Amino acid sequence: NLTSEEQQTIDWYNQNAAIWSDKHCFNNSRPPMFRSELNKFFQLVPKGKILEIGSGSGLDAKNFIKKYGARNYIGIDASTELLAIAKKTNPDGNFRLMNFYSLAFPDLYFEGIWICATHLVLAVLLAITIIGLPFAKQHAKLATLALMPFGRELG
User: Fold this and answer.
1) In 10 A of CB 1, how many CB atoms?
2) Which one in 60, 106, 113, 125 has a CA-CA gap of 20 to 30 Å to 96?
3) What is the chain's pLDDT, residue by residue, as a tens digit (155 residues)?
4) Which letter, b or e, does each residue of 103-134 get, where b requires 16 or more Cβ atoms within 10 Å of its Cβ?
5) Could you tell me the pTM of the whole model?
6) Cα separations (Å) of 138 from 4, 7, 71, 84, 120?
7) Do the beta carbons of residue 96 and residue 74 sit within 8 Å?
């Protein structure tokens, strides 16, 4: 079950999905620092099934589908509105309404899991204000998961 703060975060993304997507997708391409991270991921995981946790509006999905094929990509997000944008942008993508608490996949199903590390930056920035603390807490949880070493088992 989600906490009230987590539900509040999802509600915010549902209400602001189009604005958030327009501001954060940089004309449908990542800034160079993310391109290098994606390339590193591609080197570490040259083939196989990929899970993107927090697929948002589907920006990274384009790169994963191009590299691994639509059949090998699954993107999950808890925001119905962001998923709608992702599906429109990537009609062949496999997107599911799901959060990382309720992952429903067999063990060792994926060769790679991608979570954009911007959650760490957002956690720090949001923690500056009192009103941002609940959001900072959620981004910190996602950042912790994103920064786990490869091969670590989630339990």
Assistant:
1) 6
2) 125
3) 777 877 888 888 899 889 878 876 655 555 544 677 788 889 999 999 999 988 888 888 999 999 999 999 999 998 999 999 999 999 999 999 998 778 888 888 999 988 865 666 666 677 777 777 777 777 677 665 554 444 444 44
4) eeeeeeebebbbbbebbbebbeebeeeeeeeb
5) 0.75
6) 11, 10, 30, 22, 10
7) yes
